[in-house]
């Protein structure tokens, strides 16, 4: 018999009321609260507690950005040599607060270049990319738990791949396409169960799709555009859609009526049609990155090549851009990609 099952959550309070009190704790306090007793720890780390907080409206909806890190003052170099280093920034649109997630221990000086980032049940998942020192592709998977403020190493991706599509559905992360270490476009796809830390292979797409983009619409994982091995840079107008109900892919023609790379700039309009954020407004025509956040979209980009980054919120689909005015200097760098996370 487990005596912890009989320990009251909060002495003197009914269980339902005690649960509501704990539900209202800010996620940043969970790390300390989990040390109170075993029952609190099991509760705070449980899947059911996360979904209870989500259903009762006590989660925080934030944009997680893979963003270039500022050059430290006092650097001997006037300009950095090589590509910039990237870290994870977190923006809360309600409070307007910006924050930085601690570096991945294996990459203390910056994330793998071109890594993919998505979220699952309040956790941040970073996978793939290039080693920032050797430029070799990596299979690494890292999971960040906001409530413990710690990274853990996940099970490596089964294949080397870069510039692939990724998206989350039902606690699982789907990946597809990209290219291998020999720059061959891939048609293979896998799904990662974040809680079980296991990978499973999916059926293949109808063709290889390098530099494609993943978008989740309802219960479907869309792999937008991309190009084949022999057609470098000639982006497809088609997409492939993985349906959870059938576990099969279906091809959608004329889904991406844009000739440019869909990376980080695919939006979904009121009519359900996909569009390019870079073509939606001249202020983000270069390096646009759009992150749909449930009722609003975080949008960043520049008006011209080499221009300063602009940061905006778009209320509703295809709504008017509202500039985020108070952006701290250390969070003003280029946003390579990002995802929505409900913490």
UniProtKB/TrEMBL annotation:
<dbReference type="GO" id="GO:2000762">
    <property type="term" value="P:regulation of phenylpropanoid metabolic process"/>
</dbReference>
<dbReference type="InterPro" id="IPR015915">
    <property type="entry name" value="Kelch-typ_b-propeller"/>
</dbReference>
<dbReference type="InterPro" id="IPR036047">
    <property type="entry name" value="F-box-like_dom_sf"/>
</dbReference>
<dbReference type="InterPro" id="IPR001810">
    <property type="entry name" value="F-box_dom"/>
</dbReference>
<feature type="domain" description="F-box">
    <location>
        <begin position="13"/>
        <end position="53"/>
    </location>
</feature>
<dbReference type="InterPro" id="IPR006652">
    <property type="entry name" value="Kelch_1"/>
</dbReference>
<protein>
    <recommendedName>
        <fullName>F-box domain-containing protein</fullName>
    </recommendedName>
</protein>
<dbReference type="Pfam" id="PF00646">
    <property type="entry name" value="F-box"/>
</dbReference>
<dbReference type="InterPro" id="IPR044595">
    <property type="entry name" value="KMD1-4"/>
</dbReference>
<dbReference type="Pfam" id="PF24681">
    <property type="entry name" value="Kelch_KLHDC2_KLHL20_DRC7"/>
</dbReference>
<dbReference type="GO" id="GO:0080037">
    <property type="term" value="P:negative regulation of cytokinin-activated signaling pathway"/>
</dbReference>
